[in-house]
Every structure is written in structure tokens, then in C-alpha cells.
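Bench log, entry 3. Co-assembly request; chain sequences pasted below exactly as received.
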Amino acid sequence: MYAEYGQKAPFVSVCVMALWLSVWNFSFKMVPVTEEDECEQNVGICGNHAMCINTPGSFCCKCMPGYKELKNRPEFTYDGQCLDINECLEIGNICGPNADCSNSIGNYTCTCLSGYTKQDATSHTCIDIDECADGTKPNEGVCGINGTCINSIGGFWCECPTGFTNYGNERTPCSELKCDQFEDPVAASSQPYGGLAEILSQLKSSCLALARPDQYGNKTTGPTVLLNSLFDLTADVLSSNNTCDSVVAMSSLLSAVEDSIKLIGPQLTEDQTSKNTSQTETKITVWKKTTPPSGPLRLTNTNASLEADWSTAIGNGNYPGFALAALVSYKNLETMLNQSFEQITLPEKNDRKPSYQLFSKVVSALVSNPDTQHLDKPVILTLRHLEELKESAEVSYTCAYWKAAGGGLQGKEEEGGAWSTRGCTQVSSNASHTVCSCTHLSSFAVLMALYPINVRNPGSTNHNHTNTLTHTHNDLI
Ligand SMILES: [Ca+2]
Ligand SMILES: [Ca+2]
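Structure output for the full assembly:
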């Protein structure tokens, strides 16, 4: 989009006239001359940015194109100085109305403004780009298969039909938005879950305002306000005594927070957003450029980190004009969800069945990709243990995820969900952390499998270790 060209002033020159006379003189040998060429004998006689022209018995200097003489003289001999012409200031509107002018020594550059392009390769005129004509494939047009692209001078915007949105980003494709997910019959009908119902109600209003602006447009709430409200209400729910023992409510809450971030995230204007409350620590990263992101993606907070590839965040569908990933650590949920281990079946050791407990914070990892049940590339989650303890004969760590009801969990729907190890493998563990590799996204935690201590075993030399285990085990009973 660069147009680069120099000024070409009309060439009316006494110097050149003199040169012609000189040539004419020489050709017709009218006057014998002993010609001295000052230009050859004194290279640089005219100074910088000037050309030297030899004349009969003399010479003269002329500034190069793009320069002017200090005293605006078209020619000079010894006492001149050629300076850059600041075309951007001195020649009004030299680049036209739709370009930026940038001066340089001896030249200048015109750069078309965003949304404009040079009319043709040699033109200095910048004209509007018709972005709507750029979609080479109908399904990958700038506004997506469902959007209508409207060109404007210097810009364009996408109009989304009812039920679709581009999350307030006028120039991104329209994605379908299903607002019914922000309804939870349990939360809506039951008083103890009032806080959860309020979260869902707010998000449903926001969703409808995006998906059906003709009916609900006046209810649009800014993404930062929504995000603050989401996590403040979440903290209220988690702090409430009414719900702290309800697996159903916690399971609904985990889903609601994930769905809400997926709704609010694309509306955020910052690349990175952090939000801390008494109950949660959240990091959200959003990519909103016209080209999809690639390469590694990493999110870290106090108790967990997520390593993935941006391709996982986008998924295999058409790029919707944004991608996001988020990591939410729940500060106290591990005590509320320290149950529902029926699906965990680790092998017995010495005929002893292990008992289980959560040994990290509960962490939700999510991306904008709507299909995260079977990821092409696994994500890596590193989870901090609740306390430092190495694996041993009595203790082993397992990576588990929260399998919400409705995800094919036979006979468990009424209980909200359960912990499962499917699709998650333990990569490594040390005393303080366990690294997990998972091929789907959800909420995760490190599960400690505790094998009953053989009290007759005199080989144990780590008394502290044994005490810790005994203590922990007693807590479980
Ligand atoms: Ca210049
Ligand atoms: Ca345009």
C-alpha cells in the first residue's frame, strides 16, 4: 500500500541553455575554446544533493529533484545549499485525502489509510477497499456464511441475522448463539440456587441482546461489567452455606461459568483479562485479529497452568474471527467436590483398594472451540498439590476431570456429575505438582489415591510422611 514518488519540477534552466550553447559552439567550431570542466575537476563543488553542469568558461549547480536551494534559487554556483523539500508540509494534500504522508530526505511516501488501497500500481490515489468483495469462497467471506457484508467508504461491517452475533465486533463473522443454555431448571426453580439462577438470568439477557438485538438490544451490558458480575455472583454462590454441599449446584455452576466466559470472552477488548475474587482466580486470553492465531498458548495462575496450541482453541470449523482460552481456578471447590469418585477404579495394591481425595484446586480450562470432547492435540495441565507430598507405596496421583451429568454418565444424571479419568493421563508428578495430558476440556483436579498403610511394615523410614498419610486418611473417614 505504499506509493512512493518524488517531485518532478518543470525543468526550465539557464544552466541547460548554457550547456546547449556550449555544445553548439563545439559542434560548429565558431569560437576556439580551451574548455575547463569545473564539475570534473572539483567533484562536490556544488555541495550535497546538487548536480553540477559545466558551461563555457564556467559551471552552475542545480538542486536534485526532491531538494530546494536554501534561498529558493533555481541555480547557483559556490554559495548555494540544497535542502530536502518537506513535501508533506509544503505541497498541500500531496497524498490525497485517504493517505498519510511521510517525509524523507529527498523524497516522501504516501501510505493509504486503513480501508483504502492504491487505485492501481502507478496511481497516487487511494480508494476504498470493497472488503465485501474479498470473500473468495462464500463460506469464508468476511462475515461468514450467515452474515451480510455491508461496504462503506474506508470500512465495512457485518450484519448478523436473528440468532447470530459477532459479539459486538462489527467486522467479524456471524456465529450462531444459543441462549437456552443459560437456563437451568434446577437453579431456576429452587430457592437455594438463587445465586446460580441470577447468574444464568443475567447471562441469558446478555445472550439475547446479542442474538436478537431487534428485540433485546436495549439490554446490552458491557463485557467487563458482565464478567465482574459473573464472578461476584459465583463467589456469592460458593460462599453460601445453602449450596456448599450440593454436587448438583456445583456442577451447574462449573458449566454456567464456562458457558458465560465463552459468551463474554469474544466481547472483551483486551487481549488478556484477569479476574480474582475470594473464590476464583481467572485468566482469559482473547485473539481477535482477522487471521487466526497459531503456535503455543499458555495460561498460568497461582495453582495451575494450561499449555495448548492455538489450533485447539480454534477447532476444525471456520475461524469465527476470534479465539479464546481461559483458565479458572476455584479456591475452595475442592472441599465441596471431594466426593463422587464412583467412576474412579485404580488398580488394587496388595489386595488393598485405594480411597480417593482431591489433592489440587479444581480448575476449569476452556477454549472457544465448541467441540472439545475429542481434541486432536492433547492439552497439558499442570496442577499444584494442596500440600507437598511425593508419590509412594501408599500414595499415587491421578488426573481426573469433572464429568457433568448429561455427558453420557449412566444413572448419575440426578447427582450432577462425577470424577472420571477418561482421556486424561498423568505425565509426571513431583511432591508439589502433577502434570496431566488430556484430550478433552472440562474441569480438572489431581486425585490422590491413598492405599491403606500396612502398619506392620517396618521398612517405612519417613515418619513425617506416614503421619501425614494417617492424618489425611482419618480426614476421609
Ligand atoms: Ca522530502
Ligand atoms: Ca470499504
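The first strand starts at residue 2 and ends at 4. The pocket of calcium ion (ligand 2) is lined by residues 115, 128-131, 151-152, 155-156 (CB under 6 Å).
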